[in-house]
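Students often ask why we bother encoding 3D structure as a string. The short answer is that it lets us treat folding as translation between two languages. Here is a chain of 193 residues written in the first language.
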Amino acid sequence: MSVVATSSEPRYKVTSLERGLAVLRAMRDADGPLRNHDVVSRTGLPKATVSRLMSTLSTLGYLRRTDQGSYVLRDQSARPGRAMLEGLRLERHAPALKSVLSATGGAAYLEAQIGAARVAVFRWLHDGCTLLSAGYGESTELAACESVDLGSVGEFVLTFRVPPGVELTDAQLDRAKAALLKVSGALRSDASA
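And here it is in the second language, the structure alphabet:
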């Protein structure tokens, strides 16, 4: 803490807090994820300071680090959720999943990863797809999954689920995994565009 004797500034101020808030302002004003060097150029703070602040703010839950090494504000990674999902035009990935869904009676889901929990937000069936507002809606068993980090959009998991008691052949499971990989690659590409 430093004491400042000017009349235009408060008598006491916490420089580290000012710096942390400068980082958060830079993150808030950004159009997308930022790397440490981006924050350095936007704030004028030293690289080492930015690195420590980004790490601390991430640990405290104010920032989220993407798998590309960039950071986003934690609350921006889920905001505005419905508009973001609609913007990804998830329905256009139905053809990549249709044959395996038709053959197995299963369903594919895009699930938001929130801490250790997952929340289903979109479902593909053999005959259509829909944005969900209340989770799965039916009992299912996980057959395959693929993680998808969509940068500033958030962390998601693509899952392939089947009704209870349905046994998949190895070939069906391989087809399901291949379809999930194809869709996850397309979603990553869409999110970074």
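Translate back mentally: The chain has two domains: 2-76, 81-192. Keep this in mind for the problem set.
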